[in-house]
Input
Amino acid sequence: MQEQKDTNDCSTAFSDCGENYANACISMITKFHESISQGPEYICTCCDQLWYKTSVRKCNTTNYTKCRKDLVQSCITGVKSVEDTEWICNTCHLNIKEGRLPQCSKANGMNFPDKPSVLDLTSLEERLISPPYMVLFFFSCRNKMDSPAKNSWENC
Output
């Protein structure tokens, strides 16, 4: 596996481009590495899916005062993950706030199968080996030149 290059190595690659451009590129690369340093570790209390930090918010039941209490109680399950905090994804948050049961919620029967006791896996590893749900995308194409991506699955 190739080691990650130090940002100082990037400055030599951008030396012909000018100092401001090189600094901007190094800054963007550094921000990118910081943003992906943590994987999808945040578990939504409602749908039990793994999310990145940017896709979740701290779950606060006071945000849902206009909703039916039984809806809120069925969706907010008390599952805590990172920082021992209960998180909710933006999709579930918006659905509950509008008084709708989120389609992917555990309350709607969309939960992951129980983990066998012999497996000691992380949350991400659990989801990687769980039974896949096939999602198919069909593109209507007039001819091969109109295909959405070269060398991709096509239904033309």
Q: What stands out?
A: Residues 19-35 form the longest helix (17 residues). The first strand starts at residue 42 and ends at 43. DSSP finds five helices and four strands in the chain. The CA atoms of residues 43 and 81 lie 6 Å apart.
